[in-house]
Design brief:
Growth Hormone, Chain: A, disordered C terminus, transmembrane, membrane, transmembrane helix, MFS transporter
Amino acid sequence: MTSTKPSYRDLMTRELLLWAVVALFSKAPVAMAPLALVFLSRESPGGYTLGATLASAYVLGEVVGAPLLGARLGRSRMRPQLALGLLGGALAFGALPLARDAPSPVLIGLAFLAGAAPAACPGGVRSLLTRLVEERTVPRALSAEATLTQITWAAAPGLVALLALQMDPGAPLALGAVLAAVAALLLLALPERPTATTGAPTKVRMTRSLLAGWPVYLTSAAAMAMLATAELVLPALLEDRDIPVGWSGALLAAFALSSALGAFCYGLRTWPGSVRAQSLVFLTLTAACVSLVAFLPGLPGVALGLMLAGVFQSGVMVSRNLSLREQLPEEAHAAGYSVMYAVQGMGYSLTASLSAVALDKAGPSTAILGGVAITLLITAASAVAEGRSARGTTPPGPSTEERSDARARAGATDAP
């Protein structure tokens, strides 16, 4: 065991660079899909209404597919299952541009399949990452993953618009199909370390383990409620303040980039307090910064509030993943990440609906403050639940030291 302080330099290995390519190629189609579906149908008879319906079907597919497919990942090798999911998504992505003139139910079904088939991949790929690194390096690895995710989300809208307007409305989806297919092939080249436990977990044990993480899932729902508030109300807020609506894209890109910077900074050092406490503190700070958007005047005020919110939002992302790892046994990590992914989608969709009602009944500032209130309520409920969980028993699973020892033994066994 080494006493050297972990750093990002520890992540510069051949295996982790290959993982980064797989993660990028599997995340990019997800980031591009909703806007790409809108551009695909923009000039069709269904227009923007059909595009919004297809985007909703895609998100619904993710919400349904993530827990159903993710729960199976802990029972056998993950790579073949993840690869099949990515290939299924690639086929659906590729079929959508070819079937753009098909009846709406066909397109809706393909959009649903495009979201559902690879829905377990975000959780599975994250779980593979944590198995490829030493336990002490996991916070840096998850920070690097969050940085990669935010950069991908920042670049995706511009790439979709460029391809759809300069090449073909179906070009972004075609690119998504290619990236997903390549990610599936590269995924099979990644090593998969065995878990510290032996044998496949039973369905009852897996279900019990996943349910134990529900306070962390609440935190994820709160985080996505905050993101939905920032994204969906922003155009209306800019218009209400006589600021060109075109600034919304640049502001959201700045939000994502500041979040990437925040995630990188989170991994540079060890922060005080438990990761559960960190998640709650970061989430409260994010809500406070988003509320500033409702009060600070002009474009600089809106930009400052969003960028500060992005920095703290990244802390929520990393700390909640670390918190879930502590809460669940190792064989349930991939499934837990997938359930959390589904809860994020539900939190986003619910807040989107409430924001639409608030915009209709009141103004954009009120809608933003309503989203902040929802976030704080969920955060408070999560804090109470986690406090009770900390006083109770935790689900059975190997300790950090046992997981490290088991991984070391597995590495020695796999070595030539």
